[in-house]
Design brief:
Number of helices of chain A: 14
CATH topology of the largest domain in chain A: Rossmann fold
Distance between the termini of chain A: 30 Å
Structural class of chain A: alpha/beta
CATH architecture of the largest domain in chain A: 3-Layer(aba) Sandwich
Shape of chain A: elongated
Oligomer: homodimer
Strand content of chain A: 15-25%
Number of domains of chain A: 3
DNA sequence: TGTAGGTTTGTGTGCGGACACATTGTAGAA
DNA sequence: TTCTACAATGTGTCCGCACACAAACCTACA
């Protein structure tokens, strides 16, 4: 089909018996057009199935679009470091195009810094924003401003549906917990006590972690795996020394033989304890390919990791925005990443493979 | 960095005190240039770090690049059907650009058809080719022609290093076997007999399947899992009735409790036997998210699948070619895909997630 | 009937680069 | 010295679209 040359605006103009400017006007809904002209142009457009040449379009409008990416400071946390890498990659990939991509970092541990950075972002006057909305309330305030200003935004990592972003990129947390449960169940010997460890530093994480836990527990009940006893423990904040002791306490007191850690950072913190006290025989399931997690997986302390792919999430977020601005391509409302199961044998294939 | 406007050819020309045509000549190595002019231009290029505006470039040269994709007929096999889908997706994605992507299908079961199709591909006069080189010798002959004509090509799915393609896209088969072994080992109860089933219809597959088997066996020996006994069986071709009986024979005679199937189609064929004769308690590890495999995974007959991602492989192959032709971007020499472990709990997240 | 003021339509240039074609420069032959 | 042949360089147009600006067309009012 369509072995023909692509239809150009000029062709439409000729067919409709008007000038290119008129066609341009109906295409972009700018300026006023007479009923007759509108109809003629519309007819021609439909008949030909005109599609604009995006290459020529972006070249013609010399506009440079501005994209702001807001994430927690990569220097403070390896998980966000990977997100940062994804944004950097996107920056490189799109460097040839008329887009300016700028990163803005806030402090993962300070809500106030989010507000400050949000202010900076607004000063940057972005045409759209990619954002990891870690701080719920602060984010909502920010969204109000953005909506008012008509600046579209994409969320990733953490979803806030009521924010009505043009797209959310992340994972199904409930299902993620089920996968963790599944891996733990296949690896553990039947009867046994399982500990779900929530190790986090920021309260608002709690909601999300509970979602994982719900999936985790549901898996066991759905499959009637009653030989396993599940107990969950919160470590809201941790001081290195105390943390070790407390975790060890729990493991010994409740004679735990399997652990599910709901956070990426928590994964290696828990692994460190198992490693330090020679408890490698416990089955440990955690999250993400952080440097330390990789290490403990090679060492056999961590058995499975579920990959949230922070790098790819961020990369895709920026790419969606570029396509949205430059090529008027609407991103999917929600893009749920696959729940990748990482093991000792396939981990390398994940580390070395590109981002595509 | 580079808060400045992008450097244009015009700027370079001014800096070097020559015309844009001269700059164009050195950039494209066409026409003759004096030593002096060359030097001046080169200096300016280096000093400014000039990067061509690819948008303008593709618009300017009105050339339409032709890409041929050669794969086994999607209608005959669900695996290749997915590859076809990947090519189709790429076609849509790049439809706006100056590329014409054409698919050519050969019969998976007839070497002669490959030759015929190769002839057609040449007639199409492609600027480059994406190819799944299923038939080794026939492919080699074809490569000779392509090299002579100077037509670059990318291979996917099956590698033929001596063909020296500009890129290979696929998986590490050896490691793939190891992952299969790992999953089987975590799921099976200790002592047990394992069957490695090679179910294929084309001989040349054998080499690749042996590579998977090697990885599979190495995993067990490396981990000193001596409680498991591994036996491999070849089903070169199969007639439905006979196949069932033979497989059943093997399973009963050697009291098999775990199965590793090295092919995607073989996976559901084996699963069908287990299903039919009520042998769901056997652990089965196979390949790929084929329709029937998905079904048997939901039903609990197949325990793990390793995803080779045929759709994405093909999609990426075409995309690499487009970038290579249009934007002069060199693809990686080898792109090894992650060895994705699919389970009952994460399978949906794979089915519903996009291609990115 | 002339004209101000708004509405509708058209013309022309620029975006950055590719490339056909024109022009200038230069060395050797006549 | 003049002419030829080719090497070296330059000019101008086009790619398809966006958009500023100009022109033509109406309508209503004096």
């Amino acid at each position: 089909m369509a072995e023909f040359k692509n239809i150009r605006i000029k062709d439409i103009a000729e067919m409709a018996g008007v000038s290119v400017a008129t066609v341009d006007r109906v295409l972009h809904k700018r300026g006023k057009i007479s009923e007759k002209a509108l109809k003629k142009v519309m007819d021609a457009l439909e008949k030909t199935g005109y599609k604009p040449n995006l290459i020529a379009s972006t070249l013609g409008s010399n506009k440079v679009y501005r994209i702001a990416a807001m994430i927690p400071d990569p220097a403070l946390d390896d998980y966000w470091n990977q997100s940062g890498a994804g944004i950097f990659k996107a920056k490189e990939d799109w460097s040839q195009y008329n887009v300016r991509i700028e990163s803005f970092y806030f402090n993962l541990y300070e809500k106030s810094s989010f507000k400050q950075v949000a202010e900076k972002v607004l000063q940057f006057q972005p045409d759209s924003i990619l954002l990891a909305p870690i701080f719920y309330h602060e984010a909502l305030d920010f969204f109000d401003v953005l909506k008012e200003k008509g600046i579209p935004y994409i969320l990733f990592n953490t979803n806030i549906p009521e924010a009505e972003p043009i797209s959310f990129i992340g994972q199904d947390l409930y299902q993620s917990g089920r996968v963790g449960a599944e891996m733990l169940a296949t690896k553990m010997k039947a009867p046994g006590n399982i500990a779900v460890l929530h190790i986090y530093e920021d309260i608002q994480n709690a909601v999300h972690l509970k979602e994982k836990e719900r999936g985790f527990r549901d898996y066991f009940s759905d499959n009637r795996l009653e030989e396993f006893n599940i107990q969950s423990y919160d470590f809201g904040s941790y001081l290195v020394a105390e943390f070790d002791r407390e975790v060890l306490n729990v493991l010994n007191r409740d004679s735990i033989s399997g652990i599910f850690v709901s956070t990426s950072k928590g994964s290696y913190l828990a692994a460190a304890v198992l490693d330090k006290y020679g408890k490698k025989d416990l089955v440990l399931v955690g999250y993400d390919l952080l440097k330390d997690n990789i290490h403990y997986m090679y060492d056999g302390v961590i058995n499975f990791l579920i990959n949230q792919n922070p790098k790819k999430q961020a990369f895709l977020g920026v790419s969606y925005l570029v396509n949205y601005l430059l090529f008027k391509k609407q991103p999917p409302v929600t893009e749920l990443f696959p729940l990748e199961v990482i093991t000792r044998e396939n981990i390398k294939s994940y580390l070395y493979s590109g981002l595509h």
